[in-house]
């Protein structure tokens, strides 16, 4: 009996303490809402411009048939049907978190490139996905409008611009031809070339070309 | 005696577990910033009108310049407060947002472009500051003066497909218009090529 009297108050105290501590668990459901990465990290990720990919880089990757890119159009379906980038998938922004599309966004295989008319909606989509810690997401800087202005309809540099601008222009022009744009000077150029070349051939070229070829073939003959 | 030893062990174990729980609770750091919305709700927020035009500004709207201090000092919109975008979660700055929210004032963020302001906007909205919007302006400096122009966001640009079609049409029309000169040019070229070939064959025969 004496032992029983000793035990009971102790147990009562201990069990009471445990119940009080269990009350602390009530606090936890509040943090359950905290879905995704910490706000501080989200902010610093979202401010950093490293998510952007330029239209030139994208054009280069499309033309070189880079298999690792996946283009995602976050505009609504009507705009998507009207015009979009080649081989892109449509995920309207309001359905971004739809389970059907999760496979496109949360994966490690592709470099996903989000785009919209300018980069605004795509940025919003990117930030939401970043909170969920999806990797390999990028945003096309300037979106479709920038794509149109730089790749589809590049502006010809003026005479006082540096050589790099001309190189960039010739790249963009070639890219736009790849995407189906045709230029008037495409027609003119071959014509004018022929017009220039033809008279030269008749007058001077035969004389020059013939001796060169003979020289090349002579050593081969000796070899036999 | 045996029973007493048993109860001693049990109580020691109980005290230790309680200590562990207490230490765990003490070391648990409460996160400084808490999202008040989940991602689905945050997605719904993006569909709202998050922009305010410069003409809609009134005394109930506080302007916040999210550019850095240097740019702010070069020039800023009148009555704007400078909070660098990367510093919005610092305690002092968060307090500013909290007091503004309590006072029922609206907040308009602006940077050099509207898209600069989107990161702070979305983070603040997800932390529960529903009174935050973006001022739809582009800013640029010209001779130490800030030039503010209204910005259009997600404006529909020119249709790429149509542009490609019209460019193809133009070229096709030109091609149709210029079929005649081509054969004329080609004819003399052919004549020139033939003598060349004859000359080529001669040395080869000799070689064999």
TrEMBL record, chain A:
Annotated InterPro entries: Rhodanese-like_dom, Rhodanese-like_dom_sf
All copies of domain Rhodanese, residue ranges: 65-156
Keywords: Membrane, Transferase, Transmembrane, Transmembrane helix
Origin superkingdom: Bacteria
Transmembrane portions of the chain: 12-31
MF (Gene Ontology): thiosulfate-cyanide sulfurtransferase activity
Pfam families: Rhodanese
Designated name of the protein: Rhodanese-related sulfurtransferase
Organism annotation: Lutibacter oricola
From TrEMBL, chain B:
Pfam families named in the record: Rhodanese
A GO term for molecular function: transferase activity
Transmembrane segments: 12-28
Record-linked CDD domains: RHOD (cd00158)
UniProt entry keywords in alphabetical sequence: Membrane, Transferase, Transmembrane, Transmembrane helix
Positions of the Rhodanese domain: 57-138
Listed InterPro entries: Rhodanese-like_dom (IPR001763), Rhodanese-like_dom_sf (IPR036873)
SMART domains (UniProt xref): RHOD
Record SUPFAM superfamilies: Rhodanese/Cell cycle control phosphatase
Descriptive protein name: Rhodanese-related sulfurtransferase
Species name: Lutibacter oricola
């Amino acid at each position: 009996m004496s032992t029983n009297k000793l035990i009971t108050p102790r147990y009562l105290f201990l069990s009471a303490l445990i119940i009080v501590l269990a009350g602390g668990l009530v606090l936890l459901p509040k943090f359950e809402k905290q879905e995704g990465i910490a706000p501080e990290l989200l902010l610093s990720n979202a401010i950093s411009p490293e998510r952007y990919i330029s239209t030139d880089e994208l054009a280069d990757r499309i033309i070189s048939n880079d298999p690792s890119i996946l283009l995602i159009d976050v505009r609504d379906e009507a705009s998507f049907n009207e015009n979009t980038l080649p081989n892109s998938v449509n995920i309207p922004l309001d359905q971004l978190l739809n389970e059907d599309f999760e496979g496109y966004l949360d994966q490690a295989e592709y470099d996903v490139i989000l785009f919209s008319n300018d980069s605004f909606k795509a940025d919003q989509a990117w930030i939401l996905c970043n909170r969920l810690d999806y990797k390999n997401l990028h945003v096309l800087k300037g979106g479709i409008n920038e794509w149109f202005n730089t790749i589809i309809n590049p502006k010809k540099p003026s005479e006082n611009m540096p050589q790099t601008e001309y190189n960039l222009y010739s790249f963009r022009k070639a890219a736009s031809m790849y995407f189906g744009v045709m230029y008037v000077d495409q027609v003119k150029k071959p014509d004018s070339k022929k017009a220039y070349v033809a008279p030269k051939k008749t007058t001077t070229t035969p004389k020059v070309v013939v001796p060169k070829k003979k020289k090349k073939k002579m050593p081969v003959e000796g070899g036999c | 005696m045996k029973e007493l030893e048993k109860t001693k062990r049990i109580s020691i174990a109980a005290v230790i577990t309680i200590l562990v729980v207490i230490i765990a609770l003490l070391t648990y750091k409460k996160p400084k910033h808490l999202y008040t919305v989940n991602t689905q709700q945050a997605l719904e927020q993006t569909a709202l009108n998050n922009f305010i035009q410069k003409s809609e500004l009134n005394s109930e709207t506080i302007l916040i310049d999210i550019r850095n201090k240097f740019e702010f000092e070069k020039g800023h919109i009148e009555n704007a407060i400078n909070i660098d975008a990367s510093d919005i979660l610092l305690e002092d700055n968060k307090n500013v947002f909290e007091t503004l929210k309590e006072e029922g004032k609206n907040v308009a963020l602006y940077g050099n472009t509207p898209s600069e302001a989107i990161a702070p906007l979305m983070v603040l909205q997800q932390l529960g500051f529903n009174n935050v919007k973006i001022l739809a302006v582009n800013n640029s400096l010209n001779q130490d003066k800030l030039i503010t122009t209204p910005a259009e966001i997600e404006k529909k640009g020119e249709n790429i497909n149509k542009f490609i079609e019209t460019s193809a049409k133009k070229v096709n029309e030109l091609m149709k218009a210029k079929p005649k000169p081509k054969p004329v040019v080609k004819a003399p070229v052919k004549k020139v090529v033939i003598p060349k070939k004859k000359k080529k064959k001669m040395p080869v025969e000799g070689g064999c």
